[in-house]
Automatic annotation (TrEMBL):
InterPro entries for the chain: AAA+_ATPase, ABC1_TM_dom, ABC1_TM_sf, ABC_transporter-like_ATP-bd, ABC_transporter-like_CS, P-loop_NTPase, Type_1_exporter, Xdiol_ring_cleave_dOase_1/2
Pfam families referenced in this protein's UniProt entry, alphabetically: ABC_membrane, ABC_tran
Domain of life: Bacteria
Protein name: ABC-type multidrug transport system, ATPase and permease component
Cellular compartments annotated: Cell membrane
Domain ABC transporter per the UniProt entry, residue ranges: 325-558
Domain ABC transmembrane type-1 per the UniProt entry, residue ranges: 9-291
Membrane topology of the entry: Multi-pass membrane protein
Organism: Gynuella sunshinyii YC6258
CDD domains, per the entry: ABC_6TM_MsbA_like (cd18552)
SUPFAM superfamilies to which the protein is assigned, alphabetical: ABC transporter transmembrane region (SSF90123), P-loop containing nucleoside triphosphate hydrolases (SSF52540)
Major localization listed first in the record, in broad terms: membrane
GO MF annotations in UniProt: ABC-type oligopeptide transporter activity; ATP binding; ATP hydrolysis activity; ferrous iron binding
PANTHER family: ATP-BINDING CASSETTE SUB-FAMILY B MEMBER 10, MITOCHONDRIAL, ATP-DEPENDENT PERMEASE MDL1, MITOCHONDRIAL
Length: 561
């Protein structure tokens, strides 16, 4: 920050120099007219010419210096803001991401901060340079004749209210335009991710229509904002024109009377003429400030978002990761829609527990709660007798390997996707995980082997291949708690049997919870909990539950198919 301030000081100094050249330039018009043109003394020509050339040179150099510096500062500040937003976003809960789609968030990280950046550098330059130009030119005008100056600016107070109105309009329309821009990014994101579904459903026309509608909305609000910005300098023009005419009538008379020299009159008008540009730009700046504020508000709103899933003020490390996992009377729901209604069960230490139940029963939700991706509303979860809420979240997640239902691959190599779970892993450990999870079976067919790219969100791989990469990732993590959410659902029977075997070996000595819809997986579990309507309705081994002739037996019929 301190070197920003130092650079800024240099930039401001250069702006003062650049701004002052404007005053000097208009001032030099007086000797040009009075001494050269009126008195006709040609020996002054060279001197004034050199002077004017020097002024332009100084102006050029200082302009280059201050522009480069301010743009660099602007860029640095904005990239810092982007880094901070992303750090902040990484810390927010998954519920935040359910509310804010990726496309819109990308627009906020990139678009809003870029809008701010172009404004910041531009504003600094305009504000710095033009203020000093204004001061120097105004000094020349006042020096020539303060009454003329007063006449030239007499109309400006009339502008206060219209300008205020325009500012409000610009702020409002820009705010809408930024939101609209986020909606556009969101649509694009949905289109590109859903391209296959769009094609298969012949929905190209429909999607194009939706996109066109978003663009139309954007066009409308953004153009209103631009009209507002364009109107500001134009109003200045009209009022300035009136001032100009006033001075012309009043001052022209004084020259005719011989009270003022032509040089003074020309110098004044040069200053006044040159004053227009900085005044227009400065007044336009007000509009740009409003537009930038709209982006800034949106960035601040992101920083205002706070994670609700946070560490205990005095978090503890896991004391007994190899202990039993218990849910005691846990309730939870999304958006006030209850999912778990006082659920209680135990997954015994070192054993394999299966959770079965119909789709939407809340099985994946149980995993989310255990990893603290969501927090319970009431009740308690214990690991080895220790309440989940007092455990440091990072430490908690270090104890858990998850194979989740949704494939969570990145646009990186298969190798890096596996290593993602333990980035310090040795090469041979990654190789072993890839082998055990049968990733090698398909990666070896590729010339690049494990270095083959998985594609955006793993799209270069088949469903079963993705699942195997994710299993390899979980094996590599090798944590004491293993959570498998339909880990093998996308595999053919032969591959599933092989992986099942590998998973059983990996699960040895670990507290494992499996969610499965296939009998083969469930049957071998040490204990099975049947979940229905947000509660455990039956618990026991496969044989016990069949003998019970209840919900499990009923479910079993579907499992068998
Ligand atoms: N992020 C979310 N926001 C809102 N509701 C959700 C969210 N995730 C899940 N739900 C709802 O919670 C309920 C339980 O979902 P969950 O994913 O736990 O089911 P499940 O038992 O794993 O089902 P399946 O066997 O189909 O995977 C469902 O009704 C679902 O619609
Ligand atoms: Mg699920």
């Amino acid at each position: 920050m301190s070197n920003h301030i130092l650079l800024l000081l240099v930039a401001v100094t250069l702006m003062v120099i650049e701004g002052s050249t404007m005053g000097l330039l208009s001032y030099s018009v007086k000797p040009l007219f009075d001494n050269i043109f009126v008195e006709k003394s040609s020996n002054m020509i060279g001197l004034v010419a050199i002077g004017i050339f020097l002024i332009f040179t100084v102006r050029g150099i200082s302009a280059f210096g201050q522009r480069s510096i301010t743009v660099t500062i602007g860029l640095r500040v904005i990239t810092d803001i982007q880094k901070n937003i992303v750090r902040h976003l990484l810390g927010l809960d998954s519920s935040f991401y359910s509310r804010n789609p990726p496309g819109a968030l990308i627009e906020r990280v990139r678009g809003d901060s870029q809008a701010l950046q172009s404004f910041a550098s531009n504003a600094l330059i305009v504000f710095g340079r033009d203020t000093f130009s204004l001061i120097s030119l105004l000094s020349v005008a006042l020096w020539v004749d303060w009454k003329w100056t007063l006449i030239a600016f007499i109309g400006t107070p009339l502008l206060v209210f219209p300008i205020r109105g325009l500012h409000i309009l610009i702020r409002k329309t820009t705010r809408r335009a930024r939101q609209s821009s986020a909606d556009i990014s969101n649509r694009l994101n949905e289109i590109f991710h859903g391209i296959k579904a769009i094609k298969l459903n012949n929905a190209e026309q429909h999607e194009h229509g939706r996109f066109a509608e978003e663009v139309r909305k954007y066009l409308k609000v953004q153009s209103h904002s631009e009209y507002g910005k364009a109107a500001l300098p134009s109003m200045i023009d009209i009022i300035a024109g009136a001032g100009f005419v006033g001075v012309l009538i009043f001052g022209g008379q004084q020259i005719v009377n011989g009270d003022k020299t032509i040089g003074e009159f020309m110098s004044f008008f040069t200053a006044l003429g040159l004053l227009f540009d900085p005044i227009r730009r400065l007044s336009g700046l007000g509009g740009n400030v409003q537009a930038a504020m709209a982006s800034l508000e949106r960035i601040y709103a992101l920083f205002d978002e706070q994670p609700t899933i946070v560490n205990d003020p005095a978090p503890k490390t896991v004391t007994n990761p190899q202990g039993d996992i218990s849910f005691n009377n846990v309730t939870f729901g999304y958006n006030n829609q209850p999912v778990l209604r006082g659920i209680s069960f135990t997954a015994p230490a070192g054993k394999t527990t299966a959770l079965v139940g119909p789709s939407g029963a809340g099985k994946t939700t149980i995993f989310n709660l255990l990893c603290r991706l969501e927090d319970v509303e009431s009740g308690e979860i214990l690991i080895g007798g220790q309440p989940l809420m007092e455990i440091d979240i990072v430490d908690l997640r270090n104890q858990i390997s998850v194979v989740s239902q949704e494939s969570a691959l990145f646009d990186e190599t298969i190798h890096d996707n596996i290593a993602f779970s333990r980035r310090s892993a040795e090469e041979d450990e990654i190789e072993t995980a890839a082998k055990v999870a049968l990733v090698k079976e398909f990666s070896d067919l590729q010339s690049e082997g494990l270095q083959t790219l998985a594609g955006p969100r793993g799209s270069n791989l088949s469903g079963g291949q993705k699942q195997r990469v994710i299993i390899a990732r979980a094996l590599l993590r090798n944590a004491p708690i293993l959570l498998l959410d339909e880990a093998t659902s996308a595999l053919d029977t032969r591959t599933e049997q092989k992986i099942q075997h590998a998973l059983e070996t990996a699960a040895e000595g670990k507290t494992t919870i499996v969610i499965a819809h296939r009998l083969s997986t469930v049957r071998s579990a040490d204990i099975i909990h049947v979940i229905k309507d947000g509660q455990v309705v039956e618990s026991g081994s496969h044989e016990q539950l069949i003998a019970l002739d209840g919900a499990y037996k009923e479910l079993n019929r579907t499992l068998e198919q």
